[in-house]
Amino acid sequence: MKVFDAAGIRNVAVVGHSGAGKTQLVSALLLDAGAVNRFGKVDEGTTVTDYDEEAIARKHTLAASAAYLEWNKQKINVIDTPGMGNFLTDAKAALRVAEAAIVAVDAISGVQVSTEKVWTAAEELRLPRLIACTRLDRDRATLARAVDSIQAAFGRSCVPVQLPIGDERQFKGVVDLVAMHAYRFADDGSGKVTEGEVPADLESEAKSARDGLIEMVAEADDTLMEKFFEHGTLTQEELSTGLARAVRAGKIFPVFCTSGLQNVGMQPLMDAVVTYVPSPAERAFPGNSVSGDVVERQADDKAPLVLWVWKTIADQFAGRITLFRVISGTLKADSTVHNLTRDMPERFGHIFAVQGKTQTQLTEMHAGDIGAVAKLKDARTNDVLGDKAAGFNVPPIVFPEPVLSYAIEPKSRNDEDKIGPAMHRLQEEDPSINYIRDPQTQELLLAGQGQLHIEVTVAKLRRRFGVEVTLKPPRIAYRETITMRVEAHGRHKKQTGGHGQFGDCKITMEPLPRGSDFEFVDDIFGGSIPRQYVPAVERGIQDTRLRGYLAGYPVVDFRVTVTDGSYHDVDSSEMAFRLAGRLAFRDAMTRARPTLLEPIMNVEVYAPSDFAGDLMGDLNSRRGRIAGMDTRGASTVIRATVPMAEMLTYEQTLTSTTGGRGAYHMEFSHYDEVPGHLHGKIIAASKAERGHAKEEEE
Ligand SMILES: Nc1nc2c(ncn2[C@@H]2O[C@H](COP(=O)(O)OP(=O)(O)OP(=O)(O)O)[C@@H](O)[C@H]2O)c(=O)[nH]1
Ligand SMILES: [Mg+2]
């Protein structure tokens, strides 16, 4: 396969809400560019990018999935991404390796919560955005209504550069408003295109839409503005170059008309990617120098090699597949590359371009390209690899904290043996899941972003690794903390026959700000506890704080300072001081006014405005705090913070209140104290769940 230079590459991430038609759109693009022979359909499970069994079964993309095509002699790397809230981290990761986004907005439902999330993520990265108005072939789909919704959310710089030819099922072509040119597409889904004049019945509409576009382009540039005032319009040349400049600068977001299923509008969209998306050669990659300064790196083949791992896939056959972007330098197959994050060499055998699950071997890859390698030993997502002298770091993708956990139970002994390694590999693929054994109950806990996230993880365990588990009801990831500074004492003394046991420590325990977890300070002077036993005191406290005090949840956000103690020449041991630490901790907890903390979520609800009142009332009854409300055309966005514990049943309520026309997104915000009147219930529930698991005997 041909190898491309930075100037001949375009990297785009296709982002947008779930069901907008992203995967179907990518499928049509690949067909029309000749990258594949068969027109894959989401509904038939045959698309290139939804190749994962679980994605096929659910008809939803669950992880970023890469593909590529060639258009006008350029290689376009297209990354399809999930639109569902629980999986948006992958969309954000894909944006990090792209020079632009194609934002898919469904022509009927318009902008949704996820659209806003990915838009903001693209905005933060200052990426140009092309908007694809999708599924225009459906009944009641209109460009005008979609554009209203888009402009209400993202402003009037989102402007159509096309008009649809034919409505709903008759949507068969597009008018290019820049060239005033028409494209018609074959009825059979082949994407075969015929170019021609603007249809007579669309002429005046096209003319006025074009005038609107010209004004926007003029507004985006002072020189063009003057010309516009002088002549009342812009020349063809001024319009096309002015538009390209404005799109690249993120001043204009052009809206395109598409139907991925009918295969309408793909060629002009690919032309636009080539014209409007900067190549990696034109846009340096943002990162940090070794000393932490913000720097950029040019996609220069001759510069030291730098690769960044943006995604890891746990493939059941090929093992670990590592997706990376070459930021600078040239990567050769069959070479050894240093993992700069972990300071160890990695062997790159075959390197690939990936077309969904299909891999095509490459001999080398140039700066700016996106590719994959199998069977790296240690590299994980976020690692930077390359020449030791590269001196370039990439700020990591931040994975969200898990907010709820389910106890899982392996079905058989065999499942139990296999689950550890399988989970380990799934965590490499998706670092936003957490897998631990409850230190108190010994139950296996699987924690993630929401019910769907957990269900998908369990399904992957089954399909890819043949591990069967049963899921128990969800549990909120509560924490415990203290609210008062106290002094405490722990003394472990036992005289059993010959050798005794003796450990004794005094500690101060004090609250720390949220998110501090646990700190241990050694403040022993004069050897009242011998050096070697101080870490044992810390160990003792660590062991027991994770088992909790009130309700079995880890105790966090406090500092322990050991201040004093005593020892015995013969009877003292590490074990004895561990037990003393544990006793001191428990003594402290009796007086430190412990309390419970709960995860609080940032919630955004999106629904037709008629329901706003009901939805706010409902959020209030869930202990929610309304942070704001915006209207977007006929829709309202409500922003609130709500305890996770109150959100477990939200999906059903939202669906029934809005007749299925509402959507929401939530993500972890912070931990906050649980109101006192709810403590009793949580403690009792925890005791019941944990089967009164006994504190280990001291
Ligand atoms: N009528 C019509 N249906 C479409 C079109 N594009 C996609 N669909 C259908 O809409 C549904 C969702 O399409 P997808 O391409 O999977 O949507 P997506 O944006 O990838 O969704 P997620 O992967 O969940 O984020 C599928 O049933 C598609 O067949 C289109 O252009 N017209
Ligand atoms: Mg998809």
What is the topology, as strand order, of the major beta sheet? 18-17-23-14-15-22-19-20
Write out the distinct hetero groups bound to the structure: guanosine-5'-triphosphate, magnesium ion
The coarse silhouette is: globular
Helix content: 25-40%
Low-confidence stretches: 694-698
Number of helices: 16
Kindly, what is the distance between the CA atoms of the first and last residues, rounded to a whole number of angstroms? Answer: 67 Å
Radius of gyration: 29 Å
Main sheet makeup: 8 strands, antiparallel
| Overall pLDDT metric | 93
Number of strands: 36
By helix and strand content, what is the structural category? alpha+beta
Q: How much of the residues is beta strand, in percent?
A: 25-35%
Word description of this protein:
The protein contains 16 helices and 36 strands. The strands form 8 sheets. Strands 18-17-23-14-15-22-19-20 form an 8-stranded antiparallel β-sheet. A hairpin with a 7-residue loop joins β7 (162-165) and β8. With 698 residues, the protein is α+β, with helices and mostly antiparallel strands. α6 crosses α7, α10 (413-429) packs across α11 and α12 (534-546) crosses α13 (574-591). The model is unreliable at 694-698 (pLDDT under 50).
